[in-house]
């Protein structure tokens, strides 16, 4: 069982309400869910999509065909009627769009009329739509009714009853009228799955890592992290601040880090461009900070609500001067959760900036998981205060050490003075001009720390046979679509996936000799969402290896499973 529901319409018509409700209830009913959104940069109007794929097995990517198309306007029908499967159905309200279709693949459901008659208001038409979809696929309303009760409990029993009546009316109408409906959705013994998107997973990972300060300026697609952190601020005791711009954001985060708390900020590529001077400040004063760079197509404003992997090299090399950093690129919300935790640990341990780099696609996609294992999380307090600091006798903020890591004191929690300076400085933090001290500080900050940071980087994940003839490589958000495509093609070819989620320092081969897979394969293919092959450039610079084939997509959209299978199959057939 593997079905896709596509909901289309204008911004403001309730696509997210319908899509969010369906995704939530399907996951709670025990089905695997994968959803993603495609929306224009406007509050109302335009053409937006919400796609939900659900199955009785693990799924990790979107398909190109829809089994049910919920058309909230005429434009959705005109644009997407060709994307139906052979047994697919278009659901629409003929009264609203003022047009009727007589073909068997169309099902007229009067959402507004049902909402008025059963609930007393058109505002409940989205509830009628959810009920109708559930009736089409033969699912009972039990789980949805529980969701409605919880969602509207603060609005009173009358509102709950009206929504329940509207959902039942929509369900009954579709069950009775959809003679073409032949969907088979078997009941599952699963008690339900956790449903989470990339933005919330990053935010949750930050909270579980002890983050106590988050700030940022709202900029798609990073805003979801800011919203999540704000929603949990009181519960977790986190200071969350919406700043006037990104320059302010990074400097406030650095101030919070200096004051002694774990701090994080985030933005899209354009906002991160404003943070670059502050990034170099973090490198010089050796303050730990985590920065989320959520990519979208550029340059400039570009396509503000679309997706791209175009800021990788910018993130790797941004900032004036030379200083170490760590860069993590999760491929799933689960990876986002754990890698955010690792980013905090690395930042605090080595007193460096750490990055979580993702994109609009990963931020908005929702995945189902059994749960996250909190026992895998790291939390070590590397800062010194009170008696622990007093035992040193004297305190030098930038003291030379074998590993390049100096004692990091919390100001005000001991008798010692904590000094930081954005100029080059001596061990105590005071400005210097001599060449000898400069050399020693550069070596301390960069050469001594870098090998240790590199040892902390995990190798890429490999899925496939021991000696593949074809290796498909990718990074970040391409994880799900590559994994599923390779899984489908494995019966036809000796093919494997190599996915990188810890990018910098580039992983070595001591823990896993992944380079042998590449060198020994007959065909290697690199898949990424940008025009210039930025990950290929990183691999070439780090290892000298060049991929045989490149598959790149840079139209602002993510890879689709069917399309990627076709491209991979085409190249594999040439062997």
Strand residues, percent: 15-25%
CATH topology of the largest domain: Rossmann fold
Mean pLDDT rating: 94
The CATH architecture category of the largest domain equals 3-Layer(aba) Sandwich
Number of helices: 21
How many DSSP-defined strands? 20
Give short descriptive properties of this protein.
single chain; 575 residues; alpha/beta; Pyruvate-ferredoxin Oxidoreductase, domain 3; Rossmann fold; 8-stranded mixed sheet; 7-stranded mixed sheet; 21 helices; globular
Structure description:
It is a single chain. The chain is α/β, with parallel strands linked by helices. The chain has 4 domains: 2-177, 3-Layer(aba) Sandwich (Pyruvate-ferredoxin Oxidoreductase, domain 3); 196-376, Rossmann fold (3-Layer(aba) Sandwich); 386-456, no CATH class; 461-572, Rossmann fold (3-Layer(aba) Sandwich). It contains 21 helices and 20 strands. Strands 6-5-4-1-3-2-14-7 form an 8-stranded mixed beta sheet, with helices on both faces. A 7-stranded mixed beta sheet has the order 9-8-10-11-13-12-18, with helices on both faces. Strands 15-17-16-19-20 form a 5-stranded mixed beta sheet, sandwiched between helices. The mean pLDDT is 94.
């Amino acid at each position: 069982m593997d079905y896709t529901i596509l909901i289309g319409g204008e911004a403001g018509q309730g696509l997210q309400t319908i899509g969010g409700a369906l995704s939530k209830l399907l996951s709670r009913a025990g089905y695997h869910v994968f959803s993603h959104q495609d929306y224009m940069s406007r509050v109302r109007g335009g053409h937006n999509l919400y796609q939900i794929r659900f199955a009785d097995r693990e799924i990790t990517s979107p398909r190109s065909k829809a089994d049910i198309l919920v058309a909230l306007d005429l434009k959705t029908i005109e644009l997407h009627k060709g994307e139906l499967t052979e047994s697919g159905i278009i659901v629409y309200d003929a009264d609203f769009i003022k047009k009727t279709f007589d073909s068997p693949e169309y099902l007229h459901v009067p959402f507004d009329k049902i909402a008025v008659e059963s609930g007393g208001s058109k505002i409940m038409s989205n509830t009628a739509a959810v009920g109708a979809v559930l009736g089409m696929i033969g699912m009972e309303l039990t789980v949805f009714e529980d969701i409605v009760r919880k969602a509207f409990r603060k609005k009173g029993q009358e509102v709950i009853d009206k929504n329940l009546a509207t959902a039942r009316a929509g369900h009954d109408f579709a069950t009775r009228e959809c003679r073409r409906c032949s969907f088979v959705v078997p009941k599952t013994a699963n008690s339900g799955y956790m449903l989470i998107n990339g933005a919330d997973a990053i935010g949750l990972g930050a909270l579980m890592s002890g983050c106590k300060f988050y700030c940022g300026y709202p900029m798609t697609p990073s805003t979801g992290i800011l919203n999540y952190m704000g929603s949990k601020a009181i519960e977790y005791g986190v200071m969350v601040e919406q700043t006037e711009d990104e320059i302010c954001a990074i400097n406030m985060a650095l101030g919070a880090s200096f004051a002694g708390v774990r701090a994080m900020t985030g933005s899209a590529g354009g906002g991160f461009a404003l943070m670059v001077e502050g990034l170099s400040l973090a490198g010089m004063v050796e303050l730990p900070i985590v920065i989320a760079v959520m990519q979208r197509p550029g340059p400039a404003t570009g396509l503000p609500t679309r997706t791209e992997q175009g800021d990788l090299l910018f993130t790797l090399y941004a900032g004036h001067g030379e200083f170490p950093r760590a860069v993590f690129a999760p491929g799933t919300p689960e990876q986002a959760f754990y890698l955010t935790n690792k980013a905090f640990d690395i930042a605090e341990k080595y007193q460096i900036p750490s990055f979580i780099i993702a994109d609009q696609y990963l931020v908005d996609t929702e995945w189902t998981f059994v749960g996250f294992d909190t026992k895998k999380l790291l939390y070590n307090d590397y800062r010194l205060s009170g008696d622990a600091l007093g035992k040193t006798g004297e305190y030098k903020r930038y003291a030379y050490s074998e590993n390049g890591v100096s004692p990091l004191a919390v100001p005000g929690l001991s008798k010692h003075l904590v000094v930081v300076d954005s100029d080059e400085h001596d061990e105590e933090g005071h400005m210097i001009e001599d060449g000898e001290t400069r050399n020693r500080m550069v070596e301390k900050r960069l050469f001594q720390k870098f090998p240790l940071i590199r040892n902390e980087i995990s190798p890429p994940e490999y899925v496939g046979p021991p000696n593949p003839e074809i290796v498909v490589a990718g990074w970040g958000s391409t994880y799900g679509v590559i994994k599923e495509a390779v899984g489908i093609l494995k019966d036809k070819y000796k093919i494997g996936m190599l996915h990188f989620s810890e990018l910098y320092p580039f992983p070595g081969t001591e823990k896993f000799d992944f380079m042998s897979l590449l060198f020994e394969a007959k065909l290697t293919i690199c898949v990424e969402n940008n025009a210039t092959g930025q990950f290929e450039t990183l691999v070439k610079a780090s290892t000298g290896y060049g991929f045989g084939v490149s598959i790149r997509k840079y139209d602002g959209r993510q890879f689709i499973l069917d399309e990627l299978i076709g491209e991979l199959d085409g190249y594999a057939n040439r062997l």
